[in-house]
From TrEMBL, chain A:
It comes from the Bacteria. Its main location: membrane. Keywords: Amino-acid transport, Cell membrane, Membrane, Transmembrane, Transmembrane helix, Transport. This is Amino acid ABC transporter permease. Residues 73-281 form the ABC transmembrane type-1 domain. Residues 324-335 have a biased composition (Polar residues). Belongs to the binding-protein-dependent transport system permease family.
Automatic annotation (TrEMBL), chain B:
It is a peripheral membrane protein. It holds the Pfam family ABC_tran. It is found in: Cell membrane. The keyword Acetylation does not apply. The lineage of its organism: Bacteria, Bacillati, Actinomycetota, Actinomycetes, Micrococcales. Belongs to the ABC transporter superfamily. This is Arginine ABC transporter ATP-binding protein. One of its GO terms (molecular function) is ATP binding. Keywords: Amino-acid transport, ATP-binding, Cell membrane, Membrane, Nucleotide-binding, Transport. It comes from the Bacteria. PROSITE patterns: ABC_TRANSPORTER_1 (PS00211), ABC_TRANSPORTER_2 (PS50893). Residues 22-265 form the ABC transporter domain.
Length: 341, 269
């Protein structure tokens, strides 16, 4: 087909066009047909959201800002912050251990990561919650005996449901973070370490000012994945009846049987958190790409510019192209000025 | 500079430099079973400019990096003004020093890399100030002023650009300014122009040429034979981890005594 087109255009090309030639783009009929079907399906789904009463938007609205749900949301956020901050701090230490030349530290970190990636998080939370069965008292005393304690506490009073979930999630997260951070550090060119060493930079400066900021570029996308995952991962707390967002809606629909509307409450809240985190991720990643690429303008900046451009164009049309004329005159004046100088 | 004696640099003037003497003696280093440095001995006088030439893989860069202890070695010794950089001598053995002490001593020897190795997350100015500030030599304000002066000295004006926004030649000049920020007694160059486009080589060589006249000891590993001939007091030819020939550039680079040097010079010129 292409060949035919070329031959035909070759014939016509010999004629001298009387007017500027018009360009006709290739038409993608198949693409249009698929798009139409997809738009139809989306419309059907959106219509059903409104028309199908079983979605229960009234119930959704009733519970979306209810105290139980908001308390659950707060618990979810709190658990996420603790486990992510704690997990990444422990993870950084583990990553440094893994990269250290000490065989012992290396092995300790390797086995830690192996263990916490092997044990399901649910099992871990249950074990922490039931630690009192294995070790009834925790405290400081004579090693290898149970006889003499300087101080001690009953395990069950220390490891509340909240503590069990927070510890479980943090230790679990640490293992995964360690590997992400190690990957980031390994990705930094070895020449950077050599240059820092040649300048005599102390270890701390070398790690925090040179290596880590560069590693951050590859750590951040995977790291934000972990944070977004952890927001929903906190729902394992239901196993010890800790009322975070998901457990809270479960309790409510257990009472009123409005399962779908209440699940939607949780889903929409999770989506809102994920959206906020995605925006934060965009700007944080931008901050850490300084110096490596020419940064494109942010969406907000682009939107602002488009609006001002549109505003200017509207102004021009209103004034029957008078601003353009003025600017032309300006140019002419300046040229004359230059010539006269 | 004219060469008076084949083994000594000429005394430049009354203010002849007194610091920056490098003594390498009987240096041997293995990578596994491979002997990369084989009983190398070389003394570089304060203020002297020495070029090291030789085929790829001959051990030139390794030799250079042992001087600031970026490379360890298995036998022999390297001292700068009579002090070991990475070791302490007790009797007949050298004991490796703790890292903090090595870093402190290493700062007196600057190193400029083939691939610049500027820190891409820092601006040109920050690249220069990070070492003097974090080693507590200068305050940030003093270091900033010094960075500006150093950038001017290497012919650069925009201090707030990131390395990725600079050409290769500009990056290497920032790297030289960064090395100078610690006032090193000895400056080492590891093939400073090998990663540059041909048209950018000259601007870097100009900066090194200036340094050669101010009395800092320079040791330059290079493939730029013409440049080596022009700036060096002495040229060292290295092959297979051994010093094959050493002497004034006119001798080593024009009329080499050793047939292997002659062979190498014939190939690269």
């Amino acid at each position: 087909m292409t060949q035919v087109t070329i031959e035909r255009s070759a014939e016509i090309e010999t004629e001298e066009p009387t007017e500027p030639l018009k360009v006709v783009r290739v038409r993608h009929w198949g693409r249009w047909a698929v798009s139409a079907v997809i738009i139809l399906l989306i419309a059907q789904f959106l219509w059903s959201l409104v028309a199908n009463e079983k979605y229960g938007w009234g119930t959704f609205g009733e519970y979306f800002f209810s105290d139980a749900v908001l308390d659950g949301l707060l618990m979810t956020l709190w658990l996420t912050v603790i486990s992510i901050v704690g997990g990444f701090i422990i993870g950084t230490v583990l990553a440094v251990f893994r990269l250290s030349s000490s065989t012992l530290l290396n092995a300790v970190a390797w086995w830690y990561i192996w263990f916490f990636r092997s044990v399901p998080i649910l099992v871990q939370v249950l074990v922490w919650y039931n630690l009192g069965y294995l070790y009834p008292r925790l405290g400081l005393g004579t090693p290898f005996t149970d006889d003499f304690w300087i101080f001690s506490f009953p395990t069950t009073s220390l490891l509340t449901a909240f503590a069990a979930v927070a510890i479980g999630l943090t230790l679990h997260q640490a293992a995964y973070s360690a590997e992400i951070i190690r990957g980031g550090i390994v990705s930094v060119d070895a020449g950077q370490t050599h240059a820092a060493a040649a300048l005599g930079l102390p270890r701390r400066v070398r790690f925090f000012r040179i290596i880590l900021p560069q590693a951050a570029r590859s750590i951040l996308p995977a790291g934000f994945n972990e944070i977004v995952g952890q927001v929903k991962g906190t729902s394992v707390a239901f196993i010890v009846a800790l009322p975070e967002l998901f457990y809270s809606v479960q309790v409510i629909y257990g009472r009123n049987q409005q399962i779908i509307p209440l699940l939607l409450v949780a889903v929409v809240w999770y989506a809102i958190i994920t959206t906020v985190l995605s925006v934060v991720q965009y700007y944080v990643e931008r901050r850490f790409s300084r110096g490596t690429v020419d940064l494109p303008p942010t969406p907000i900046y682009r939107a602002k510019k488009q609006i001002t451009d549109l505003w200017h164009r509207l102004g021009e049309e209103d004034g029957k192209a008078s601003p353009a004329v003025t600017s032309q005159t300006d140019t002419v004046t300046s040229y004359t000025d230059k010539e006269s100088v | 500079m004219t060469i008076i004696d084949s083994n000594r640099p000429d005394p430049v003037d009354d203010a002849a430099p007194t610091v920056g003497k490098v003594e390498i003696s009987h240096l041997t280093k293995y990578y596994g079973a491979n002997r990369v440095l084989d009983d190398v001995s070389l003394t570089v006088e304060p203020g002297e400019v020495v070029s090291i030439v030789g085929p790829s893989g001959s051990g030139k860069s390794t030799l250079l990096r042992t001087i600031n202890h970026l490379e360890t070695f298995d036998a022999g010794s390297v001292t700068v003004d009579g002090r070991y950089i990475g070791y302490e001598r007790r009797g007949d053995t050298l004991h490796e020093l703790r890292e903090a002490e090595v870093l402190k001593r290493r700062a007196q020897v600057g190193l400029v890399f083939q691939n610049f190795n500027l820190f891409p997350n820092l601006t040109a100015r920050e690249n220069i100030t990070i070492a003097p500030v974090s080693l507590k030599r200068l305050s940030q304000v003093e270091a900033d002023q010094r960075a500006m002066a150093l950038l001017q000295r290497v012919g650069l004006h925009d201090s707030e650009k990131y390395p990725a926004q600079l050409s290769g030649g500009q990056q290497q000049r920032v790297a030289i300014a960064r090395a100078l920020a610690l006032d090193p007694k000895v400056l080492l160059f590891d093939e400073p122009t090998s990663a540059l486009d041909p048209e950018l080589v000259a601007e870097v060589l100009d900066v090194i040429r200036d340094l050669a006249t101010v009395g800092t000891t320079l040791i330059i590993v290079t493939h730029e034979i013409g440049f080596a001939r022009e700036v060096s007091d002495r040229v060292v030819f290295v092959e297979d981890g051994r010093i094959i020939e050493i002497g004034p550039p006119e001798q080593v680079l024009r009329n080499p005594i050793n047939p292997r040097t002659r062979d190498f010079i014939g190939r690269v010129l």
